[in-house]
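Q: My labmate handed me this sequence with no annotations at all. I'd like to see what the chain might look like in three dimensions before we decide whether it's worth expressing. Could you predict it?
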Amino acid sequence: MQTERFATDSARAKPPRPDTVYVVDTVVRVDTIIVIDTVVALGPAPASAVAPAPAESPSGGAQAITEDDLRYLRSRDLIVPVAGIRAETIASSFNDKRGSRRHNAIDILAPRGTPILSADEGTVAKIDTSAGGGLSLYIAGPRDRFIFYYAHLDAYRRGIAEGMRIAKGDVIGYVGTTGNAPANTPHLHFAIARADRDKRWWKGTPLDPLPLLRD
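A: Here is what I predict for the chain of 215 residues:
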């Protein structure tokens, strides 16, 4: 078999013989694929602009919890976020270990399908599904000062949507075991975090919700 090298115009003028491999000069344009590779390899947006896969509760916050924060939350008269459950029956578990990390939340046990109530008024910041929290909701409280996190839901309330205004006591979902919750222990994983100045729903300084709940 022969190999002949000639210009593109010649290739258009004379059809190639079946037994000949022609090396056309414009083959060098294949090299421009490298430019495309460079564009693809520019990488993701900066980490500050991308929400990471969240843990079970907002974390990593830079805002310290102050006495003024606690007074404000007490003034809100936060309700127990599971229908029919009294605050005095909820076990303290905020400081418990979950593997290598602190729980940073409380678990409120209730039968599967029990309505979950919004502990305070606010706005639905994120409807999320994750391996840890399962079906979950992040609700930003008044003035976006605090983030309320509800996880392991069996289902969301019909029609709930991001950006929706929620009143205190509104049903927002139902108790379940989605995510990493034990299949035979339906409960609500409930967390409160002090939002950072950038108001990101997945990031905040956690505080124990239990002392703040009112029946």
